[in-house]
Amino acid sequence: MTESTPNQESDRLPLDELDIRVVQLLHQDGRMAFTEIAKRAGVSEATIRNRVQRLLEFNAIKIQAYLNPDKLGFRQIALVEVKLTNLVAAQQIAQELTRLDSVSYVAFVTGDYDLFLEVTYDTNETLLRFLSDLRSKPEVNDTKTVQVLKLLKTQYSFQV
After folding, report:
1. Residue 110 class from Cβ within 10 Å (0-12 exposed, 13-18 middle, 19+ buried)?
2. How far apart are CA 65 and CA 122, in angstroms?
3. Above pLDDT 70, what percent of the chain?
4. Which of 30, 32, 80, 108 sits most deeply, having the most CB atoms within 10 A of its CB?
5. Using only C-alpha atoms, what is the Rg of the chain?
6. What angle (nearest 5°) sits at the alpha carbon of residue 64, between those of residues 106 and 15?
7. Is residue 4 scored above 70 in pLDDT?
């Protein structure tokens, strides 16, 4: 039997009650100080620091800011569905798309399309170039694109 590493997709980090509380508090406020988390959880700051480090190293959490492009007034958003010739092609195209700064979200999905993307762009011309490049790939059978007119929520959340 081989030892597992935190980077394997199939591995799950077992969470105890303290881990769940830490994740919930960071989800409410990703900038919350370890001292405040420790106070609310009833443990030491060092314990919280170790727990958060473990969660980060395992890629169980990622702390980052979500921007609202509409509020910042400089970028637009399009949602793109992509149908590919096969799953091998889907995995290759998905990897390419994750490396693009303009692509903020890539997911394998069920249904008529294989991939779902969130794309940001400055001008319609930029979006047109992105879509033309994507559609020129022989592995891409079809795409469906919608432009976001008004962003209402940017927080990705679920109950832990």
Report:
1. exposed
2. 20
3. 84
4. 80
5. 20
6. 85
7. no
pLDDT at 6 over 80: no
The structural domains of the chain, ordered by start, are 17-57 (1.10.10.10), 69-147 (3.30.70.920)
For range 20-30, the mean pLDDT = 89
Q: Average pLDDT in the 11-15 region?
A: 84
**Residue whose structure tokens are 């170790």:** 50
Classify each residue of 51-69 as buried b or exposed e, where b means 16 or more C-beta atoms within 10 Å of its C-beta. bbeebeeeeebeeeeeeeb
Backbone angles phi, psi at 141, to 5 degrees: -85, -40
Is 60 exceeded by the pLDDT of residue 96? yes
**Residue 136 CB-density burial (10 A; 0-12 exposed, 13-18 middle, 19+ buried):** exposed
Report the predicted TM-score, pTM, of the whole model to 2 decimal places.
Answer: 0.64
Strand partners, 146: 79
Q: How far is CA 150 from CA 70, 111, 125, 154, in A?
A: 7, 25, 20, 11
Backbone angles phi, psi at 121, to 5 degrees: -155, 155
